Amino acid sequence: MEDSFLEELRRDFAVEATEYLSTIRDILQDPKSFEDPKMIEEACRIFHNLKGASQTVGYPRVSLLCQSMESLLSAARKGSRSITPSDLPVIASGLETLESLINGTDVPIEAVARGVEDLLSGKVPSPTNKTPQEASDAAGQAAAAAQEEHHASGAENSASAEVPEVEKASAEPEPQGVPPAAEEAPPIQPAERVDPQGHQDLQREHDDTVRVRFKDVEEFITLLEDLMSLRLYAAQKAEQLFSVASEDKSCAEARPVIRGLREDLSAMDRAIKTLMQKARDMGMIRGDWLLRFLKNSAVGLAIKLSKSVDVHVSGGDVRLDRRVMETLKDPLMHLIRNAMDHGIESPEEREKQGKPRSGTIWISISADGSDCMVTVRDDGRGMDPEAIKAKALKDGLISLEQSSSMGTEEALHLIFQSGFSTAQGVSDVSGRGIGMSIVREALDKIGGTIKIATSKGLGTEFSIRFPSTVRTYRGVMVRVGSQVFSIPSSQVSMVYAIKNKDHQAMGIAMGKERYLPAIDLKDLFGLKGNSSSPSKPQGVVILSSDGEEAGVIKVDQILGEHEGIVKGLGTFLGKVRFFVGGTILGSGIVLPVLDVKDLLDSIDRDSAPFVEEKTSGPKKVLVAEDSVTSRALLKNIIGSLGYQVVTASDGQDAWERLSKEDFDLVVTDVEMPRMDGIGLLKRIRSNPPTSRLPVIVVTSLDSQEQVKMGMEAGADVYISKKDFDQDKLKSLIWGFLG
Predict the structure, then answer these.
(1) Which residue in 374, 448, 369 sits closest to 655, CA to CA?
(2) Domain locations in the chain?
(3) What is the per-residue pLDDT across 475-491, written as a single tens digit (0 to 9) for each?
(4) Which residues does 18 contact at the CB level (< 8 Å), separation at least 6?
(5) What is the pLDDT of residues 210-249, one digit of tens each?
(6) 3-165, which class in CATH?
């Protein structure tokens, strides 16, 4: 591993470790925290992550100490013992020792390790006689000492001399099959390739570059997000003023002023969004940083496990938001550890199976529109869904009934449950059933998804899709009783209204012999909603999981879509079930943002199973509409004819879907972000595979000039929303598709 890269990793580790230990200190301040399973789980995960990170940067004593602390907490997490007041001094001593090591002070770890062993074996702890209160005080003193002693150059300066030979080697060997030039390229090359236009020469680029701390960029983005919230609030007040002025004749003179205010706010909105994009661009870095980290870590891990593995990486020129990259770093390392420890066989075993003695792991990053893809693939033994179900059943993670009805994909995803592990024993690599659950939790934070493809004896591929940058949030507002919630629009397939009498025992009827499992927010949160009168409609939101309609939630009313900034719940609250954070409306009101994954997990699939009878090749219709309500209406109308309906949020989204899938008809709006309906029409007609595709335009733009423009662009039918008639639309679609 290059010295400069290792130093950069160690600096990052020092910052990361300080944040982690700060969280542990907060937990330790209140001894009762360890009575809460969630707090124990959080502390366990922190030590687990620190252990893996310290191994990567060559700090073996930090890793060993974290392993001891994790063993103690893991026993409590699994219920084999509990954390008692007598344990806290040992935990406090471990915390002090870790902080000293991370801050560069050479201190022994044996006393703490013995203390943990004594606790696990039931002996009286020996390292310290501190009371719980003294333990808390010690944690606070350690925090103060850390503030005074911390310096940016890294941590545990003396550790490199004590690294065993095998661990020294882990950072150095070049994996087989990878040209040395890939690692030894001059450091100036990545900077040169960042400029896609090639306009500037290298000297000009160097002269125009200023190093900015990423922390400053993050603070700048946070300030812009706060400014965006204030702008939304001001815009709403301006609209209220304009509404009053429009109705009150005495305010006629104020109307031009208010109109000017609205224009100024629109200009401010554009300026803030431009600044936000520039700031986010500043936080974008090349993917080769992440790939080099993963590659070097994988090589070192292979040596530790006595396995021969070639590691191939690609896609280093893809640019990612650093915040996203930092979030993904640990989860990807867990995937690689999983591949190394459980996937890649020993050289002898591979030879017996007719495979090359050296296994191979491929790690790649690619861009897909506004999203990114990371794949981790190995040519190992693959995964056995039946074995996974059997282990989950044995560990009490699923019931026998769930196991018998579980499909292959659902079985594979059991590996992401906390506590699941197929390791025969516990080591510093795996065995406690924590790592893979961290993968799912990290992806939930950034709106990512993961898919698994595996073949027994041939290997496994994990495909992760996530936004390349942190985006402004869009959500659907729903009301239950007097409480309003927000659901991420990206995870809403459609919304519509049904009557209580239409609810079926099998769930929500979505057509003939097709039902979706349902959950009522009123019942879930114990809220008072609408009466159960059959004549009173309820809103239904269809939740999407990995692009598939997976379930519904019933609410009293759907209020519409909104845009805003999502703020997390903070370190004090941490993770609260069913919620990911809060979003601020223009009025200044904070709405709770619902966690779709938690909602789907809470649905009782036994009482409301998903049943779908597929017909032989139904015709497919693509609906392009940026309004959630209009999109839902069109999908409902067209779906009632028995056609398969796919929705797109704008013209660009629709075109991307047309490029990947075959459709029999397109229904589109005109005014949409990114690409409007006219632009979509022109692309459809200029592309030979789609040039004869029927296109119906449904829009509020109904002047003769606009109709002419749409027809000239290639529309087969142009319908005004003002004169919209469901039966007419159905007849037209039936005429095209039969």
Answers:
(1) 369
(2) 3-165, 214-282, 285-467, 472-613, 614-738
(3) 888 888 888 898 887 77
(4) 102, 146, 150
(5) 556 666 777 777 777 777 767 766 776 777 777 777 777 7
(6) mainly alpha
